Amino acid sequence: MQKVKDGPGSQAPANAVQKGGSKSARAWRRLRDNHPFLIMIFPAVLVVFLFNYLPIYGVLIAFQDFMPGDQIIGEYTRWIGFQNFTRFFTDVQFWPLMKNTFLLCIYGFIIGFPLPIIIALMLNAMKSKRMSKALQTIFNGPHFISLVVLVGMLTLFFGRYGLVNNIAAHFGGERVSYFLESKAFRPLYILSSNWQDFGWSSIIYIAALSNVDLGQHEAAILDGASRFQRVIHVDLPAIMPMISVMLIMSIGGLMGVGYEKVLLMMTDGNLEVSEIIATYVYKQGLTGVPNQSYATAIGLFNSIINVILLIIANTTSKKFSENSLW
Amino acid sequence: MASLTLKDIKKVYPNSEEKKSKKKKKGDEPEKQKANLQITDEGVVAVQQFSLDIADKEFIVLVGPSGCGKSTTLRMIAGLEEISSGELYIGDRLVNDVAPKDRDIAMVFQSYALYPHMTVYDNMAFSLKLKKTPKAEIDKKVREAAEILDITQYLDRKPKALSGGQRQRVAIGRAIVREPKVLLMDEPLSNLDAKLRNQMRAEIIKLRQKINTTFIYVTHDQTEAMTLGDRIVIMKDGFIQQIGTPQEVFNHPINLFVAGFIGTPQMNFFENCALSVDAGKYSVEVLGKKIALTEGQNKALAAKGVKPCSVTLGIRPVHMQLDEGGFTGKIDVSEMMGSELHLHMNVQGNDVVAVIPTAGLDVSAHSIGKSVNFSFNPALCHLFGEDGNNLL
Q: Which of A215, A218, A223 sits opposite B127 (nearest CB)?
């Protein structure tokens, strides 16, 4: 009887020769094996490069005394170092802008981040799938309303002669110009934004919930869990990785609020709270006597804050949970 | 521990409103059969006329091919599926409308269905926590169950850090920690590899001796059914085909389906055999040879008043032996299984399998393409009438 002398793993695998070779040979083989996928991904890479990376070149004007019509890098380029940044930090508007931007974003985040999760969990837990789908469609509707129309609707509802004031007046109340009230700006802005987007934002969580193992729900039913307990103990943990990723991305974009809606809602009455970094950049860069170098420096500063927040959020998430972007 | 009674249980998955309206437009259509599903005006019938009494502490195995309704029956017992009609009693209590958590049952799922974010300990303790059981008692019960299943060392791990077999033990642990009256198992071993499945099968037999409760076990694997069950319920197309002990269903299959389903390799069938009777003695002609039936078989056929007719003769491969004076066949495939040799033969156009013990056998003399002579003991053959039912 012949005995096997070699222990397990003592022989090289049959494909060892194929997998060996120099680094360049292995790289070439990977390229050859994956070329259909690389061809497929190429257009996306090209678009990202052209529209996201190439324009970064323009950031250079933050360090120049740039005038419209100048070359970014040319014979007459006037480099001024960090002067634009120093000017912004010493600008009388600096702290109000930071405060307004931060508060608008943080309030929006506190309300807007959990809302789609709650909605997704509720829709998923509904017994009637038909009703759940109908509600989902209804909730998605506002997302397709343009910002101008949305602010128009807000005016119709909250304007001095809008629906809310008409009702208040009918019951003897006093008419209030909500758009001229500083106190009303943030609630109006945040609640209307969330009303518009909570349905749309919940789609990603609904998709994640559709992958939850039905067996776990059935096991929980047999364990005696109520519907709410199943949401807490089965559904929520199942979408936690998705929540972590979305949380990191949200924190990364925390200070990146856009200027369009704020500009549409901005009035002299609420200017002290509605002037944020984005609107200030817009005004400095594109209105009056444009100062594009200064506007770019402010925008760059804002982006750097976002990147720092993203890194902090990702590192924290990596440390305390198993989920992170990288 | 509790007995169970299932009285004429039926499960119909109703047609959707869309299908109903389509059917109305088309007019009345007769009942039809799609694959193995019966489709009626009510909907798709998954289980019907299911009546069974399960004794306290009995181990019942529901077995049948995919789509036969065995899992649906189990889920109806669990309360995860509504019972369309019929009555289900656990002990003396009618539980048709009782919530699953109040039925005092536990279930082990095919997919384990463990909570991935909880440790093994928390998975096992979850149901007790929901019942607001005191912490000390939870700890005692979980550790006892873990001890029984030999998973104490994994209590702090999460399910993803366990192997398939360990996960299955945790799933069983989660079920037994509740000390249920009835333990339901839905194909619990089907996700495991063959070796682990054999090992876990033995573990379940040991577990049964330790926890002493009523088991209802669903499987499509007839080996599991034969080795685990006190009684086996064989199902097909939503109907019970036969209920009996493993020996009963193996030795006295009630019809062609049961005869073919139980036993590996499958029983050999010889169709269109002429059953004749001469002076009260029955004989059957198979593969051109007339075989006289035994005294017992004669009595059984006479008692049923069986007249000469065409029958299907069934003989299990293990009941065949090499015999120079018997039938001649040509070997198509020869499978050496160690202690036995599986010979797949062609005998006058019929595919026949014989299981021959290898002790003292010249295996090389039974290779592919060679001729072989075999016979079988008539006392061990089965006769099935034209309706497929066993005549003996």
A: A223
